Amino acid sequence: MKPKIKRIGILTGGGDCPGLNAVIRGVTKPAHDYGISVIGILDGFEGLVERKSIELYNKDVSGILASGGTILGSSNKGDPFHWPEESGGKVKIVDRSKDALKNYEGWGLDALVAIGGDGTMNIAHKMSLMGMNIVGVPKTIDNDLEATDLTFGHDSAVYVVAEALDRLHTTASAHHRVMVCEVMGRYAGWIALNGGIAGGADIILIPEIPFNWNTVYEKVLQRNMRGKRFSIVCVAEGAKPKNGSLVTKAKDLKRTDPIQLGGIGEYVAKMISDNTGLETRTTVLGHLQRGGSPTPFDRILSTKFGTNAIQLVMKRQFGRMVALKGSEIKSVRIADAISKQKLVSPKDSTVLTARAVGVSFGSENL
Ligand code: F6P
Question: Looking at the domain assignment, is residue 24 inside a domain?
Fold first, then answer.
């Protein structure tokens, strides 16, 4: 007979994202109904290494469905296999995975639910190879995780972008300006693509389709000639011109991904202004896209992910991640989820839809 699950841990890793609390609630409530106690590990994998945790009771997860952030705290610097140790002003990277395993065993955990994006799933995979019983839940506003049709948090970020573009339209049209809006997404263009379509952008620039400066200038000038004396440009932080490179803000070796992107919006606005003579302005949405309450869609998806994650634990299907496939929640191997990044294909039906309504991607075929 399989050993009974009595105690599980749960953690939220990487950047925060709307819906994390809804997942924690979706795991914890049914777990208690099964008589399982739940340990909330604080600040992602950092808490697993440094032994920081709280016991989660029903009262702790009651009323958190609609709240943003995470009641457990999160970190994108706590990779146990890539642990930054500072001494004498220098950062040394060490492996503290054995400490993480020791704490998992010390807490008497039968399983660990890891909620996070590709960084968290990579760590989760390596931890399961060390013997931990792990179930993953795919989170990220970027939607760049393979093996699930959607990650939770993406819809909420897209909602923020759409609303921002709606607002930018009014000033753009009143002042006859080109408004450039820089959005997040790291090396994937999903937020810019979906947010751009929802907000009626005229130009969407994404990492997967390197753009041509002249095509961008032509598009805004053509619009002006047709009497549309304003344009809305939605640019992903990871977008770059053909033969150009990523625009970055900082590098921090302590982070799982050391590169901090940012600045392409300002660059695009200046180039458009210098080369067309049109007045331009830039808005960087930044962390507004990650904060606040999840959309109803994300609340539902997060709740489904959470309740299905505890089912995987009960069935002892470890090393797996819950995933959305069509309208069904299934499970996939974590190893498959991290095999590659999910990027926008230039032939994706959403790209073709945008092109069909006249959106330019700054590429040859407009
Ligand atoms: O992965 C989510 C995300 O918001 C990316 O879109 C963005 O590039 C990055 O995190 C920003 O991270 P931080 O908040 O650590 O600057």
Answer: yes
Q: Do 268 and 123 share a structural domain?
A: no
Nearest-atom index, ligand 1, CA of 262: 8
What is the reported pTM? 0.96
Residues 82 and 15 in one domain: yes
Residues 183 and 56 in one domain: no
Structure-token match 């069935």, residue found:
315
pLDDT of residue 88: 86
- 13-63 pLDDT tens trace: 999 999 999 999 999 999 999 999 999 999 999 999 999 999 999 999 999
Q: Rounded CA gap, 48 and 53, in Å? A: 8
Q: Which of 16, 43, 79, 142 is catalytic?
A: 142
What are 91's strand-pairing partners?
A: 86
Q: Are residues 172 and 88 in the same domain?
A: no
Instruction: Tell me the C-alpha to C-alpha distance, in Å, between residue 214 and each of 39, 80, 177, 272, 360.
Output: 56, 46, 18, 9, 12
Question: How many domains does the chain contain in total?
Answer: 2
Place of tokens 């302005």: 281
> For a substitution probing ligand 1, which of 74, 139, 186, 343 has the most ligand atoms within 8 Å of its CB?
186
The answer to whether residue 108 sits within a structural domain is: yes
**Beta strand pairing status for 328-333 and 320-325?**
antiparallel
Give, using CA atoms, the residue closest to atom 12 of ligand 1: 15
Instruction: List the beta bridge partners of residue 332.
Output: 321
What mean pLDDT value characterizes the chain?
96
Question: What separation in Å is there between the alpha carbon of 156 and the centre of ligand 1?
Answer: 15
Q: Is 149 a catalytic residue?
A: no
Identify the burial level of 161 via C-beta atoms within 10 angstroms of its C-beta, where 0-12 means exposed, 13-18 middle and 19 or more buried. Answer: buried
pLDDT at 365: 61
pLDDT number for residue 90: 87
DSSP string, 262-316: --HHHHHHHHHHHHH---EEEEE-GGGGTSSPPPHHHHHHHHHHHHHHHHHHHTT
Q: What distance in Å separates the CA atoms of residue 218 and residue 211, rounded to the nearest whole number?
A: 12
Domain that holds residue 264: 156-291+345-356
Ligand 1 center to residue 184 CA distance, Å? 7
Which pLDDT tens digit goes with each residue over 210-247? 999 999 999 999 999 999 999 999 999 999 999 999 99
